[in-house]
Amino acid sequence: MIPLEAMSASNLKVSYESMGDFRKQVQSALDTLRNSKGAPQVVADQTVEQHALHSGSSFAEAEGLTAHYTAVQQTLTQMADLVDRLLDALEIAMRGAESGYQNLDEDERRRFHTVNTEVYDRREQARSEDPAQPAARPADNSDKGAF
Predict the structure, then answer these.
(1) pTM across the whole model
(2) C-alpha–C-alpha distance, residues 86 and 95, integer Å
């Protein structure tokens, strides 16, 4: 940790400028995702119907392929949506770091908390499915005005 007396206004200015540059990069990544083939809705729209792979008669391999494709497509849709919302949460966190948590509006605080909770829940679900996954419990700072 840097001693308080070693900090100067110029150091803080550089940090603020760095935060601004980082914020622009995050916004660019968010815009790129939302306008790409990896956008949550674009991924969700890429479905394959069972009848597209066979002509009505029972064809177990085609049905199995369709089932696997659908499962993978649903997972990719969830992941694309989560990445989109994580980038949004990062943007909110940077605004909070810049202007203070108390200056964020209620919708931003709610969105940030919702994503944080979902990430925790997904991690716990993965951990329950694979006990080798490390446990992590985010601090509940929702009532303390902090991230």
Answers:
(1) 0.58
(2) 14
pLDDT at 52 over 80: no
The encoded tokens of residue 59 equal: 């064809």
Spatial CB neighbours of 115, under 8 Å, sequence gap ≥ 6? 85, 86, 88, 89
Burial class (CB in 10 A: 0-12, 13-18, 19+), 119: middle
| Structure letter (DSSP) for residue 38 | T
Q: Are 91 and 27 in contact (CB under 8 A)?
A: yes
Contacts of 20-27 with CB under 8 Å at 24 or more apart are 22/94, 23/91, 23/94, 23/98, 26/87, 26/90, 26/91, 26/94, 27/91
Compute the residue count for the chain. Answer: 147
Q: Domain segments of the chain: what residues?
A: 12-38+74-129
pLDDT: which is higher, 106 or 88: 106
